[in-house]
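To whoever is on call:

I kicked off a structure prediction for a single chain this morning and the downstream step that reads the tokens threw a length-mismatch warning. I double-checked the sequence; it's 100 residues and nothing unusual in it as far as I can see. Pasting both halves so you can look.
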Amino acid sequence: MNKIAKFLSLSVVLVLLACSKNEPGPIAGVWQADDFPMKTEFRAGETETMGMIEKVEYEVKDSDVIVTYTNGMAKGTAMRYTVVDKNTLKTEMGLLHRVQ
């Protein structure tokens, strides 16, 4: 019984880690906007744009990733990134393409 309890406990922890709001999922990496020369990097728990690093939480919903800023000037603001394909994101500001 003890082995089963340990296995179940470990399984629960792994599931919780996999569902973490700190992972960008399919948008992880560096993206370049089409309409203006700006790159954004999505990484665990934060984004970086033009040298500004901001703490965020990620929520993956089907083909959308909702990025909610948790500090800085954009605190409380959420932005939707729709995955068009593995190298293209659609936002309200236009398209972004993966560069890394």
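Update from on-call: the warning came from a stale cache, not from the record. Cleared it. Sanity check on the structure: Strands lie at 29-33, 39-43, 46-49, 52-61, 64-69, 78-85, 88-91, 94-98.
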